[in-house]
Write a structure and sequence with these properties.
Helix content: 40-55%
CATH topology: Helicase, Ruva Protein, domain 3
CATH architecture: Orthogonal Bundle
Strand order of the largest sheet: 1-2-3
Number of domains: 1
Shape: elongated
Number of strands: 3
Structural class: alpha+beta
Number of helices: 3
CATH class: Mainly Alpha
Radius of gyration: 13 Å
Distance between the termini: 28 Å
């Protein structure tokens, strides 16, 4: 499920000429925080939005106009880290 959702995001960004890489640590972090005993995987999309999409949008806006199109999204100390090069 997580690979499908992240692949959708990757395809949306490829339309803007961005190449994105999601690390295994990020995927594990999202699974750990996005799966609920009661609701199963349903909260996963919200976790992806909170941990990936929102910070990624901010990072892209901050780098607007720069010729940087490669993005790596990972987790450091329980926080999403985005590297744009």
């Amino acid at each position: 499920i997580i690979d499908i959702e992240l692949d959708k995001l990757s395809k949306r960004l490829s339309g803007l000429d961005f190449k994105i890489e999601f690390t295994q640590e990020l995927k594990e972090f999202i699974i750990e925080h996005g799966i609920d005993q009661q609701f199963g995987a349903r909260p996963l999309k919200r976790e992806i939005q909170k941990c990936v999409e929102d910070p990624l949008s901010e990072a892209i806006l901050e780098n607007q106009g720069k010729d940087k199109k490669n993005i790596k999204v990972t987790v450091k100390k329980d926080k999403t880290k985005i590297e744009i090069s």
